[in-house]
Design a protein that fits this description.
Helix content: 25-40%
CATH topology of the largest domain: Murine Class I Major Histocompatibility Complex, H2-DB, Chain A, domain 1
Radius of gyration: 32 Å
CATH class of the largest domain: Alpha Beta
Protein name: CD1 protein
Keywords: Endosome, Glycoprotein, Immunity, Immunoglobulin domain, Membrane, Signal, Transmembrane, Transmembrane helix
Subcellular location: Cell membrane; Endosome membrane
CATH architecture of the largest domain: 2-Layer Sandwich
Pfam family, one: C1-set
Strand content: 25-35%
Number of helices: 6
InterPro entries: Ig-like_dom, Ig-like_dom_sf, Ig-like_fold, Ig_C1-set, MHC_class-I_related, MHC_I-like_Ag-recog, MHC_I-like_Ag-recog_sf, MHC_I/II-like_Ag-recog
CATH superfamily of the largest domain: MHC class I-like antigen recognition-like
Largest sheet: 8 strands, antiparallel
Order of helices and strands: HEEEEHEEEEHHHEEEEEEEEEH
Length: about 350
């Protein structure tokens, strides 16, 4: 039955009719982190994400989900969500207890941190892909494959011991398998359906050009700013005609306060080579109408004006000042000599 629902992805995926440049797998993942301060104190934090949008939080004291969006429950019933909460509360207790009990054996020095990432990805026309990975101090330790935990090649003997311990509980392995292969894909499809209006929102980008600090004498740092766009996938490039310019540097894509995004693309060029360059922006909200901003009016006309007009003005002012001073210093022609 689950595979019949994948036909809905064409309709439900955000930006499903956009260009190939913007298509990416749709994923739902849970991030869980336990900080072990000493043998009697541990603090757990949890969150859940639809792609790069946080949809859930985790109340550590009560073991309850925090629904951050009006549609964060998807199409699951209250009974199903309560059952999943119970599973996570049980997991939270057992997970932390295992690492406390084996801290000495696995050479885990307090304080230390253990992270878990689990979830699933949906691909159009393909089966869903479930994943679960556990890391120690940010380094991969074990991951689940084919209904069993496998040690990371870089995890050494510690990874071998941890995977062996986690594989002892066959009932829990079956629960993991069901969560990753059935529960997670169904919940993800429900989120996409319930949040469709929000997820398919489109905001057109705004773009402008500027210069950054000069990287070297005779060079310009051209900067293309793009802001206020949603969803996040976007393509921005400095071009000369139809040729992409090598050496273009992109900043991180940063969030705006209204939920839209901002980025900038920079290009270091010789000043005499700047004429003819343009910044091109493609985004799903623009359909086939790319934004193209040309630099030549700013570079050739602007710099010629500054290079020619400004020196002429300075020379005129200087000549006027020298003439006025010379006139003041010259003696009057009708002055009678006393000699």
């Amino acid at each position: 039955m689950l595979f019949l629902q994948f036909a809905l992805l064409v309709v439900l995926l955000p930006g499903g009719d956009s260009k190939d440049d913007f298509q990416e797998p749709t994923s739902f993942r849970v991030i869980y982190s336990s900080s072990f301060y000493n043998p009697s104190r541990v603090q757990a934090l949890g969150s859940a994400w639809l792609g790069e949008l946080q949809t859930h939080g985790w109340e550590n004291h009560t073991g309850s989900f925090i629904f951050l969006r009006p549609w964060s429950k998807g199409n699951f019933s209250s009974e199903e969500l309560t059952e999943i909460e119970k599973l996570f509360r049980t997991f939270n207790i057992e997970f932390n207890q295992i690492f406390h009990n084996h801290a000495s054996q696995w050479q885990l020095a307090y304080p230390f941190q253990v992270q878990l990432a689990m979830g699933c990805e949906l691909h159009i026309g393909e089966a869903s892909v479930g994943f679960a990975r556990i890391a120690y101090q940010g380094s991969d330790l074990i991951s689940i494959q084919n209904n069993s935990w496998l040690p990371s090649p870089k995890g050494g003997s510690r990874a071998q011991q941890v995977s062996g311990r986690f594989n002892l509980n066959k009932v829990f392995l079956e629960t993991w398998h069901r969560l990753l292969t059935d529960t997670c894909p169904r919940f993800l499809l429900g989120l996409l359906d319930a949040g469709k209006a929000d997820l398919q929102r489109q905001a057109r980008p705004e773009a402008w050009l500027s210069t950054g600090p000069s990287p070297a004498p005779g060079h310009l740092m051209l900067v293309c700013h793009v802001s206020s766009f949603y969803p996040k996938p976007i393509w921005v490039m400095w071009m000369r005609g139809k040729k992409e310019q090598q050496g273009t540097q992109q900043s991180d894509i940063l969030p705006n306060a209204d939920g839209t995004w901002y980025l900038r693309k920079s290009l270091d060029v010789e000043a005499i080579e700047a004429d003819g360059l343009s910044c091109r922006v493609r985004h799903s909200s623009l359909e086939d109408q790319d934004i193209i901003l040309y630099w030549e009016h700013r570079s050739s006309t602007g710099w010629i004006f500054l290079a020619v007009i400004v020196p002429l003005v300075l020379l005129t002012v200087l000549a006027f000042w020298l003439r006025k001073r010379w006139t003041r210093c010259e003696p009057p022609s009708n002055l009678i000599s006393l000699e």
